[in-house]
């Protein structure tokens, strides 16, 4: 059964910003239903993001819609066959030269810098692997159609590329101009300046005997900004010292 694209928009539908096209190839397209919600769902309605989720099995040619086969050379598990990938990528990249991302635990690690870089592209394609992964020749072939990136969500192994793709689309999507209403909230976030974000508080000022730091009630914006920066450094030093420069003097 063909899974309908999350939302198809014509470029003339966009109200502001530029349209970024994102194609996803997966044998479990329903995973991506969650991307119709919240900010990314809204971004599709307003025409900022054109997300098209497609079932890889659409490009199979046999009765059983087979996408996997046994590995050459032996070994455990199954490998995704190249033929459906080739046909799908041919169709999806017919009118453009996209950036083609294959989530992989053996790829470069995804960071905020990767998200920022990818948020500037006009056409992204995500190819979600399953089983033991995709026949290696698919990556070589895809590089004739566009830029290929193998990207890991982190040093652990997932069952498939869907969750990794969703995480990447969310991180990339919120950096597309217009997707997050207040762009200032993006600037202050963790990883944007190489540090973790400072702690946040809201009302009431005392909750179950825990008080909000006095400085935040002072109304003195310069003092608050200095306190927040100190908190960022302290928190990063404690939780993620690997993010700080070795000598830690320039922070
Ligand atoms: C079970 S994994 C295959 C792992 C592969 N045999 C290996 O050892 O590198 C199946 C698919 O899940 C996805 N995947 C698993 N771990 C991932 C990670 N850390 N980051 C991104 N994608 C991942 C990839 O799409 C991969 O093709």
From TrEMBL:
Entry annotated with the keyword Isomerase: no
Family matches, as SUPFAM superfamilies: alpha/beta knot
BP term (GO), one: tRNA N1-guanine methylation
Entries under Gene3D superfamilies matching the protein: 3.40.1280.10, tRNA(m1g37)methyltransferase, domain 2 (1.10.1270.20)
Molecular function GO labels: tRNA (guanine(37)-N1)-methyltransferase activity
Residue span, tRNA methyltransferase TRMD/TRM10-type domain: 21-244
Top EC group: transferase
CDD domains xrefs: TrmD-like
Catalytic activity: guanosine(37) in tRNA + S-adenosyl-L-methionine = N(1)-methylguanosine(37) in tRNA + S-adenosyl-L-homocysteine + H(+)
Keywords: Cytoplasm, Methyltransferase, S-adenosyl-L-methionine, Transferase, tRNA processing
Binding site for S-adenosyl-L-methionine: 129, 153-158
Pfam families, per the entry: tRNA_m1G_MT
Enzyme Commission number(s) from the entry: 2.1.1.228
PANTHER family xref list: TRNA (GUANINE-N(1)-)-METHYLTRANSFERASE
Role according to the record: Specifically methylates guanosine-37 in various tRNAs.
NCBIfam families in UniProt: PRK00026.1, trmD
Similarity comment: family membership: Belongs to the RNA methyltransferase TrmD family.
Complex and partners: Homodimer.
Protein name per UniProt: tRNA (guanine-N(1)-)-methyltransferase
Organism: Microbacterium oxydans
